[in-house]
Amino acid sequence: MIDIKTIAERDRSSVLHPFTQLKDFASGKLGDPTIVTGGKGISIRDAEGRTYIDGFAGLYCVNIGYGRTEVAEAIARQAYQLAYYHTYAAHTTEELAKLSHRLVQMAPGNASKVFYGLSGSDANETQAKLVWYYNNLRGQPKKKKIISRERGYHGCSVISGSMTGMSFYHDQMDLPFPGILHTGTPHHYWGAEHGESEEAFSRRRAAELEELIVREGAETVGAFIAEPVLGTGGITPPPSGYWREIQAVLRRYDVLLIADEVICGFGRTGADFGSTLYGMEPDLVTVAKGLTSGYMPLSAAIVGEKVYSVMEGAADRVGAFSHGYTYSGHPIAAAAANAVLDIVEKEQLSNRARVVGAHFQKRLKERFAQLEIAGEVRGVGLLGAIEFVADRHTKRRFDAQLKVGARISKAARERGLIARAMPHGDILGFAPPLVVSEGEIDEIVELAYQATRQVI
Ligand code: PLP
């Protein structure tokens, strides 16, 4: 029998929780920690026996759902056989070779090699180093700046946290790091001028990017990093024409494209990758989350042929590629990823996310259409968001003190639905496991609607 009180006390006295108001937690104002004890399908349960539909798949990661015994068995098999060996100096395991081969086959762009980390943040840190390394090796040592977008999210380590384009991730942390720049976010609802079409808005955003590159000097700009669909910054699909226009600018100035597929990868948008859906041809691709559905920590920086060929070409001159972690390519994580990707393929989860996702988008729009405070209902595949405003016609925002998004999220939770209050604005976000059914989608939308009505 779990002693709930002891667990809560131990936690409160000793865990430094990410993204938590420390004083409110310490004083008990936030209540006790939720002790999560189990999960099955699209739901989790806590120590008090409550169950919640997880409308956010953990943190957009548990795509195959909770409690998949196939993955648990693959993890156990590998742990019994060989729990750990490193991958330095050309060591490998069967599971790692298999995973790498399949990632190179399936990744967008002209993928050549896969480097492994443990989180999206460290994989993006690796991407930055690869951009610097590549440009040093090809004799362009000034071409090092990396441009990301306002409201983009790329993690919270030093470089990935700098790429993240929201100031509250930088404040008091001495970020952004020099040489990481930001350009405008492609959100038509907020950014477009009166009467401006999505295509015209996309051209304007691309022109702004071009101006920034020219202002800084193209010989100093190494890469542009972006999520195909902006995630934590508000779950915002790109406006029409955006990726075509942006890629034309990047090619013109020889700037690499890093596609951060940490959320979009492995089916979330209804395609295998967000890049596939939007016609992106990235030079470097970052994956994590859906790669193992959260069953083990694993990320990858997938390196395209253009970058890799320069690295290999310079090897006689510069020696070994001196970057790697003790746990790069961990065999248990690789076994988990293979078992997860087997499920993704067998159950055609990308296709399922496209079909069930279309139902989700339709239901969300229909249900919230009459609500005056639903300023924009948006999404793609099984990613969705409702942005709440005080006045739909003038787009006047709610007073931040009212914490409308957070209160609706809390009300939803009390009704047994986890839907995330996004950190930027009054936005309720959804990213359910890709195994969700249409009936469960209806339940999620209805619970979110009832929660909204309760608050406003
Ligand atoms: N990139 C994107 C697009 C993400 O959404 C996230 C996390 O949410 C990250 C990177 C960072 O991943 P991690 O939290 O595993 O470091």
List the helices and strands and how they pair.
Layout: H1 4-14, H2 22-27, E1 36-40, E2 43-46, E3 51-54, H3 57-60, H4 69-81, H5 94-106, E4 111-117, H6 120-137, E5 145-149, H7 158-163, E6 180-183, H8 188-191, H9 198-216, E7 221-226, H10 242-252, E8 256-260, H11 274-278, E9 284-287, E10 299-304, H12 305-313, H13 315-318, H14 331-346, H15 349-369, E11 374-380, E12 383-388, H16 404-414, E13 417-418, E14 420-421, E15 427-430, H17 438-455
Parallel strand pairs: 3-13, 5-6, 5-7, 7-8, 8-9
Antiparallel strand pairs: 1-2, 2-3, 4-10, 9-10, 11-12, 12-15, 14-15
The chain binds pyridoxal-5'-phosphate.
In short:
With 456 residues, the chain is an alpha/beta fold. 41% of the residues lie in helices and 16% in strands.
Into how many domains do the coordinates divide?
A: 2
The gyration radius over C-alpha positions equals 22 Å
CATH C-level name of the largest domain: Alpha Beta
- Helical fraction equals 40-55%
Mean pLDDT: 97
The biggest sheet amounts to: 7 strands, mixed
Distance between the termini: 40 Å
Q: Which ions and ligands are bound to the chains?
A: pyridoxal-5'-phosphate
- Shape descriptor reads globular
Can you tell me the CATH superfamily of the largest domain?
Answer: Type I PLP-dependent aspartate aminotransferase-like (Major domain)
Number of strands: 15
Low-confidence blocks of residues: none
- Our count of helices gives 17
Identify the CATH architecture of the largest domain: 3-Layer(aba) Sandwich
Q: How much of the polypeptide forms β-strand, as a percent range?
A: 15-25%
The main sheet orders its strands as 4-10-9-8-7-5-6
